[in-house]
């Protein structure tokens, strides 16, 4: 039996979605970004909206997301993706628009843009990757860094009296009338990946009905920044991140 | 109508697709006029009050990246907040219009007119090597007309354009000839005309990426070289200026915007006293009319740069005239407008008698 005998349509169980480019991703082995990218891309493929989608990339680890999504992409300044997404959607209301941001981008430097885009009820999908750290710049403290968590700028652990408290921005956004769907997901087990994909699908479907912001937080790992093996990082995520950032839907509007 | 209202009316009538702004004195009439006119019902133009100037300019970025004609307006402190976005827009080579109705600074300063944002505008207020195509209106009519011209130049060079006005031109009421409603560009026209824009991936071509990031520095240098080449073309083709009473002039006022209006009165007062003085009014502040100023330096005895600042444009006048003749600056600042008598007196003491 040779290669051609095996690769037949009826044997196909797994392939790269055409909504991802063939570029090799720069993410660290074990990082959740690659999975999150794939889920967004698969949803776009399955909904048949590749030619009617515009994505907004952030600054941070996923700054080069525009090289991976095979849809028209714009690269925003740090924190400003929701402002770009606002204009794109308003000027092209029949398009599907998504922003993809990390925690430093969305919940620190871009907090204003995030809250106001959500409060205005922009009809967009916001994907938020929360790994509790600034990964790209080398593991500094993020707004979402847990209490006592060690980072390069909280080397003795996050002292909340000195450095403030971890920000549950997703809970905050769920309070705003402009958000229609707010959910927190994870991608570190196959079951969670499948669940997360359903949430992302819902978040894109909502754009068809002009319901407002659909917000999907994905609690993710940063094994490089956390200085752990991928397996240990996933375990640490489950034991430490999830008690503070519990998974599930925070808001589902009818 | 007011200068600010002329900007708003021009935006609607020139077929602008989107306006994103934040209130600040002395230009809030622009957003107010647009909201009152409800152009989204007439032409489909989007008008949105953003949460900050930072958001406004980034909304402009998003809209411009779609090939749409989008704009924002503000006044000095708000324009300072936009500098990051302007640098990104210039770096991503996107066309847009930003209007600055300048007020006195630094800091929160004053709400009265000023021209102290010349450096910020023409030398690049944000980071990196970039330029803003800068138009300086001296009348309400030019406030209207330059909206159309600014978009034409912005799209021609894929670069942000700035209308650098001031609190006088923004607030003064003058008669204006306004044009008919021009249709907005269709999505089909944009897709066909601007392949660089994010208009939705075409089935058989790669996706479009709008970015100002290039991690490979040898490629980033090539980006800069390409942008600079574009700027040289702009300098060669787009210099605009007006000359008044220059044919027999021994002395020249160099002034833009409302200062140029004051100088016109000062010329009248000077000529009544037998002083042969004229005005060179730069209309484009970048590209700056250096060539004509250099030629004038061979013909006249001195030039006075009149600005409502501590002396900013005077540096470009000095560069253009290469110290061949006496060049001085006269200005009031912090929101004070000079009188024609003060301007003439400055010419007499700093240039003629100096």
Q: Would you identify the CATH architecture of chain A?
A: 3-Layer(aba) Sandwich
Content-based structural category of chain B: alpha/beta
Tally of discrete structural domains of chain A? 1
The average pLDDT value of chain A, as a whole number, equals 96
Strand fraction of chain B equals: 15-25%
What brief labels describe this structure?
heterodimer, A: 254 residues, alpha/beta, Rossmann fold, 7-stranded mixed sheet, two-stranded antiparallel sheet, 10 helices, 9 strands, globular, B: 354 residues, 2 domains, 5-stranded mixed sheet, 44% helix, 17% strand
Overview of this protein structure:
- The complex is a heterodimer of chains A (254) and B (354).
- By secondary structure, chain A is of the alpha/beta class.
- Chain A has one domain: Thiamin diphosphate (ThDP)-binding fold, Pyr/PP domains (Rossmann fold), CATH 3.40.50.
- In chain A, 36% of the residues lie in helices and 18% in strands.
- Chain A has helices spanning 3-6, 33-47, 81-91, 103-109, 111-120, 160-163, 169-174, 190-205, 223-226, 230-244, and strands spanning 53-57, 72-75, 96-102, 125-130, 133-134, 140-141, 179-186, 213-219, 248-252.
- The radius of gyration of chain A is 18 Å and the shape is globular.
- Chain A starts with a helix and ends with a strand.
- The mean pLDDT of chain A is 96.
- With 354 residues, chain B is of the alpha/beta class.
- Chain B folds into two domains: 3-171, Rossmann fold (3-Layer(aba) Sandwich), CATH 3.40.50.970; 241-352, 3-Layer(aba) Sandwich (Rossmann fold), CATH 3.40.50.920.
- Chain B is 44% helix and 17% strand.
- Chain B contains 15 helices and 13 strands.
- In chain B, the strands form two sheets. Chain B has a seven-stranded mixed β-sheet, with helices on both faces.
- In chain B, α14 (313-321) links the parallel β12 (302-306) and β13 (326-330).
- The radius of gyration of chain B is 21 Å and the shape is globular.
- The termini of chain B are far apart.
- The A-B interface holds A 21, 50-54, 56-57, 63-64, 66-67, 69-77, 80, 83-88, 90-92, 95, 112-113, 116 and B 17-18, 20, 46, 48, 50-52, 54-56, 58-63, 65-66, 68, 70, 84-85, 88, 92, 187, 198-203, 206-213.
């Amino acid at each position: 039996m040779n290669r051609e005998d095996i690769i037949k349509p009826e044997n196909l169980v797994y392939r790269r979605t055409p909504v991802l480019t063939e570029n090799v991703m720069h993410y660290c082995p074990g990082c959740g970004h690659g999975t999150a990218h794939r889920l967004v891309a698969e949803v776009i493929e399955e909904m048949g909206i590749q030619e009617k989608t515009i994505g907004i990339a952030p600054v941070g680890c996923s700054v080069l997301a525009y090289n991976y999504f095979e849809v028209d992409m714009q690269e925003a300044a740090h924190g400003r993706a929701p402002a770009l997404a606002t204009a794109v959607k308003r000027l092209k209301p029949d398009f599907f628009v998504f922003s993809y941001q990390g925690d430093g981008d969305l919940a620190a430097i871009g907090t204003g843009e995030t809250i106001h885009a959500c409060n205005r009820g922009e009809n967009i999908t916001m994907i938020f990757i929360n790994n509790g750290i600034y990964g790209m710049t080398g593991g500094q403290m993020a707004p979402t860094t847990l209490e006592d968590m060690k980072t390069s700028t909280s080397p003795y652990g996050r002292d909340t009296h000195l450095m403030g408290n971890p920000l549950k921005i997703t809970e905050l956004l769920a309070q705003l009338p402009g958000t229609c769907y707010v959910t927190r997901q994870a991608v570190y087990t196959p079951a969670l990946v499948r669940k997360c994909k359903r949430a992302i699908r819902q978040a894109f479907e909502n754009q068809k009905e002009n319901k407002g912001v659909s917000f999907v937080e994905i609690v993710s790992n940063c094994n490089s920044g956390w200085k752990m093996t991928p397996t240990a990082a996933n375990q640490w995520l489950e034991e430490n991140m999830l008690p503070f950032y519990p998974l599930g839907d925070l808001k589902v509007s009818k | 109508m007011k200068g600010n209202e002329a900007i708003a009316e021009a935006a609607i009538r020139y077929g602008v697709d989107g306006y994103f702004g934040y209130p600040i004195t002395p230009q809030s009439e622009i957003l107010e006029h647009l909201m009152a006119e409800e152009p989204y019902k007439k032409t489909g133009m989007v008008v949105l009050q953003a949460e900050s100037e930072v958001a406004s300019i980034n909304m402009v970025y998003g809209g411009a990246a779609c090939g749409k004609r989008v704009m924002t307006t503000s006044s000095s402190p708000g324009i300072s907040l936009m500098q990051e976005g302007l640098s990104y827009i210039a770096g991503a080579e996107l066309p847009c219009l930003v209007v600055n109705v300048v007020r006195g600074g630094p800091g929160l300063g004053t709400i009265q007119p000023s021209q102290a944002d010349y450096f910020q505008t023409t030398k690049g207020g944000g980071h990196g090597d970039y330029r803003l195509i800068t138009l300086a209106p001296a009348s309400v009519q030019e406030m209207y007309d330059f909206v159309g011209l600014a978009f034409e130049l912005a799209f021609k060079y894929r670069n942000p354009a700035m209308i650098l006005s001031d609190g006088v031109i923004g607030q003064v009421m003058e008669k204006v000839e306004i044009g008919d409603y021009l249709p907005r560009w269709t999505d089909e026209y944009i897709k066909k005309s601007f392949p660089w824009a994010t208009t939705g991936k075409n089935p058989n071509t790669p996706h479009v990426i709008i970015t100002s990031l290039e991690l490979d520095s040898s490629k980033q240098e090539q980006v800069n070289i390409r942008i600079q080449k574009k700027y040289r073309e702009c300098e060669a083709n787009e210099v605009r200026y007006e000359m008044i009473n220059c044919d027999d002039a021994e002395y020249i006022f160099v002034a833009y915007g409302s200062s140029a209006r004051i100088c016109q009165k000062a010329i009248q007062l000077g000529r009544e006293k037998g002083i042969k003085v004229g005005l060179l009014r730069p209309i484009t502040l970048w590209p700056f009319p250096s060539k004509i100023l250099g030629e004038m330096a061979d013909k006249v005895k001195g030039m006075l740069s009149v600005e409502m600042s501590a002396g900013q444009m005077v540096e470009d006048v000095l560069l253009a005239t290469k110290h061949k003749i006496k060049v001085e600056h006269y200005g009031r600042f912090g929101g004070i407008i000079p009188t024609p008598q003060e301007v003439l007196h400055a010419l007499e003491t700093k240039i003629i008698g100096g």
